[in-house]
Amino acid sequence: MKIYKGFSNFSVYAIYVIYGVMILGLMLYFLFDFRKGYYPVYTIGFLLFFFMSVLILYRISSILQQMSEKYILFGLILLCFIIKFCWIWFVRIEPLVDYATFFYTAVDLSQNEIIQNRYVALFPHIFGYSSFLSIFMKIFGASYMLPPILNVILSTISVTLIYFICKKIADQRIAIVASLLWIFFPSQTIYNMFALSEPLYTTVLLSIIALMIVIHEKLSDRLKTFGYSLVLAVLLAFMNMSRPIAAIPIIALAIWFFIIDIKHIGNKKIFVNKIINLVTVIIAYSFLTTLSDHYISYRLGEEIATVPGYNIHVGFNMDSYGQWNQHDSDLLYYYNDMKELSANDVQRKMLEEAKNRIFHEDNNFFKLFCVKFLIFLGKDDAAVGYASSVLDHPLRLQILSDVYYYSLLLASLFGTFIVFKKRERSVVIVLCLYTIGLTMAQMLVEVSSRYHYSLTISFVILASIGIIRLGDYIKLKFGKTYRKRL
Length: 486
Known about the structure:
Blueprint: H1 2-31, H2 39-64, H3 69-90, H4 97-111, H5 118-122, H6 125-140, H7 146-169, H8 172-183, H9 186-191, H10 198-217, H11 222-242, H12 247-260, H13 268-300, H14 309-315, H15 326-336, H16 343-360, H17 365-377, H18 382-387, H19 394-422, H20 428-442, H21 456-485
């Protein structure tokens, strides 16, 4: 038992250290990348923005917490909706490239029971978001403004969930700061104008984390937590339909329940309930995922691919450093043009190509993973690039996006130090595990800056902890000094 507790303590420290090292690495890259254009603007802007954020957000949260909570929450929800809606209303863009694929697949699904779309069969995660979108298209029609409006609603739901999660983790001030950080997040606001799956599966992810908290609080009630576990499995299966990464929160839940949170030691009932809940989630999730695969195959009129062969093949391309490239795309279409091959067969062919690339080509994996890590997390201005054709001052927005992002990361680093020092065992550990897990997964497949969208919830929540605790320290330290001088 002593060894078990020791391993648990070691695991807590290890998770926070790994997360902190990731953030610290990004900070060093940002601060010492002297080749970056407008380096002084980025650096000075980042430092000023960080310290101003700490002072302003700390003060605002201190004032607001004195008000009635229902008014605070209503105000945050209204502010979030207004800001996000104003952006998508005044800055509009037609669906292009990947976003066009999502949109027009949704149009087909809203009009037909079965559609013939080999591309979606090759990449079935497209179906998840498109089918969600098609439900509203049946009601409101196929307007270009429908996805942005739905994204605004999802973003507003997300701010409510962020508030709930932070209130459970810490206190109301941290919940207020996290909500404000989400509301004014530049890239998140800009992404709302596109037809893309990120706002949907991130909202679902927040719902999953919120439900994990509820299950954890009700562990002594076997019947209730069993019901919650079934709902959790449904959310995980739905998330997996939009982005096949649901295994990461499941693994994070298992680590949290049985390695990090050790209150089941000496309490057989809690231990058994944890096992029942986790097994329920895994079995129900597996069943629902199988069911959803059959449903997608039915709607597409052919068997869908079950292996991400192409994404792995691209992920180990040293020339493109794991990013989309024409050569690998041409190879995919070469196999796809073979009439005798199904979508699943095509992806399995690409998986064989990926194995050949990994084991037989001359690869510098360390360099590949380092570059991919920076592509994945090193910048936050991709949304501006996608929207540049309709923006008046894209460069200013690029700078703003990255300055805000790195200010958030620095605050998140402070937050990580706080939870590390406290040896925090709450759902914060799940957020860190999700960040580490998704980053590791992206090292194996095709990478893009946009794919770190869902990680911003971890940054926002930990940054809010860092801002409030740093504000408390400044107030305590300098408040005492000021009083002594008086």
